[in-house]
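Exercise: predict the fold of this chain.
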Amino acid sequence: MVDIKEIKSIKLTPFTRMSAVIYGILGLIAALFMLIGLGIVQVAGIVPELGDFNIATGFGVPLIILLPIGAFFTTIVVSFFSAMLYNILVPRLGGIELELDGKEVLKIPVVPFSLITSAIGAIWAFIAGLVIAAVISPILSLISTLPQATNITTNITAATGSSMPTGAEFGMESVFVSLVLIIGLPILAFVFGFIWNALFALFYNYIVTRVAKINLEFSQISGTLHELKHVPVLQTALAVALVFTLLGLISGIMSRNYGEFISNFITYFIETALMAILYNYLAPKIGSIKLNLE
């Protein structure tokens, strides 16, 4: 029997804890593979210019420490804030809806999914734009006040014949760049994010589900509160990988990187499978993700 569920809210602490631990472990796995790769480079003598420098110890060992820790704490911030934004936006935009048949996701309604995910992406783009503008704007403003700026631009203009911005124009450009970053970047993130997420849902609904379906095993705790008990690995990994394969086919054609769809399939199949395996292992130990479904 088909049951349509809307994710009304996400419990912040379980979601953040699970996300951070999973990405911390994935960071450790990635660091170990990098260490193996660096060791192969060292033994094979691919970079003879390094001489006696121990590339595995010099770069590999620090990665084992820094990459998992960095992934863990970065994910805490990103996942907590993203889930909080989701909960705030749901009453205004509506939540993600899922058409479920048991544990199989039969369909992801396009507009609700695309609208809220692109809105969250736009807010993150706004924050990124603020941070970048806060760094770039003072630098450009400082350049505009330096007397050397006018001399440098004058000399370049005389040498090349091309008109270069003056010191005062640097100040105007800093304002323009800041406006583009703070206003333009979030708008672009929303528009392109909406299109990309809509394609994700459309590909899943009408193509991928003929081959494989995302599987999510929910269990009711009380009322509308549910927990994600288990994520079947192979079906979910195959479904997600196939969606990104189709998306990679489009972006690959646009960028003329015709092998992108192959790398997308391999990457997302492995990543999704690892995340599902880790989730199933960790859920009984640190607590599962909890959602309000209506």
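Check your answer against the key: The longest helix spans residues 167-206.
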